[in-house]
Amino acid sequence: MRDYTYLEELIRLAEFDKSDIVLDVGSGTGAVAKAIQPYVKHTVAVDISDAMLSKGQWEGISVVKWDISDLLFINNLFNKIIARMVFHHIFDELDRVLVRCYDLLKKGGKIIVAEGVPPTDEQEVVDWYTDMFKLKEERRTFRSNEMAMYLKKNGFDDVFNTVHIMKNFSVKNWLENSGIDRDRQNKIMEMHINASGKIKDVYKMRIIDDDCIIETRNIITVGRRT
Known about the structure:
The chain is α/β, with parallel strands linked by helices. The chain contains nine helices and eight strands. It has a domain at 4-119 and 138-166 and 218-224: Rossmann fold.
């Protein structure tokens, strides 16, 4: 979230209004919640992790430890729902979660989902991306149009994607701030350094000293409850 153009794109696509009540799903330490707060009436930040929530600064933001798949809020409460880099953690219950999000939105409300995806949908690239992330955590890999299909499947209309490219992304910095052990950090870095020419090309990869600089691809998907 140091790439402020990413935050600016989320804010632009959300089309926030000063009367909006917004739910930030998987808020973590609150980077998104804090960024959108000046544009809306109120933000509710939810996350399942006490450890993440305890690291945030939440002045003016309501914070709830909560699993989005569970019932808590009444329906038709929020004008907007933001979910940045959270749905890849959900495996068997993604449809249920999206239905829950749909119900929580007021009519005309919008969901804005941001997920990292492989730089192309070619199988070799998807497989490398999936294997690399297995070294970091258990997560699902979304292809470029997959989240849009999930939103349409679960009732959302006016669904569209926007691609956001993060340039000059430091793999070393990402790994050092990932919280994973040094052995796995080294294995992930080695995967990048020893990747095939195809992988290096699609990531626009540059090896600089002991770092690997790449371009990462993010898909922001927007849908509306009608």
